Amino acid sequence: MVSLAQLRPSVLNAARRSLHRARLHENAVFSRPASFGTSLVDDMWGGEDSAAPPLDKPPMGPNTYYNPVTAIMQRGPKKDVAERPKPYHLHVYTTHNNCRVVFTYPSGRLVKNGWWTSGSCGFKGANKSSYEAGYQCAVRAFKRIEEEITSPTFKDGGVSPVTLALKFKGFGWGREAVQKAFMTSEGDNIRSSVVVVEDRTPIKIGGTRAKKARRL
Description:
It is a single chain. With 216 residues, the protein is α/β, with parallel strands linked by helices. Helix content is 29%, strand content 15%. The protein contains six helices and five strands, in the order αααβββαβααβ. A five-stranded mixed sheet has the order 3-2-1-4-5, with helices on one face. The radius of gyration is 36 Å and the shape is elongated.
């Protein structure tokens, strides 16, 4: 319950003026002795320990008043909550000619044996830009991520539990292949670890004139 001492000064001033006029004109009926020692005035002036004002002085507001907006905004001391570990990063770079997948620690350092390209997966020539090349890169990356989930390498910057931030850059068949690989049985053990999905493909606005479109 809010006491009168916590109300706004304008409300208190109006109440005191009415009480002041009633006492001067002897129109007030008090159930207690007609003096400024009543509980109403004591409440208006902050409690029993504070002195009531004399009649020959104008009413004055309290030093503090209750503001419901501020009371809602004020919060108690912050609880000690353990910080969530930062996620690992799985970068997927795809172009019209190649696909590259890189697995890094939260600090950005490359995980050992944590990179794959279409060429390293055995694809040559025009096949490096194919859907299957991107799919094989994703499958091999999933196996390495499962190893890191099972036994994180703490000395190199690993954390536990292992969470994953998936970051795509560029367009190509490899991008679609990696996305579909997460939804297959190969990605069952990895899918629940993904906490962030970002598209970091740069968008050109203005700048120099683009190259002439290739015509076949």
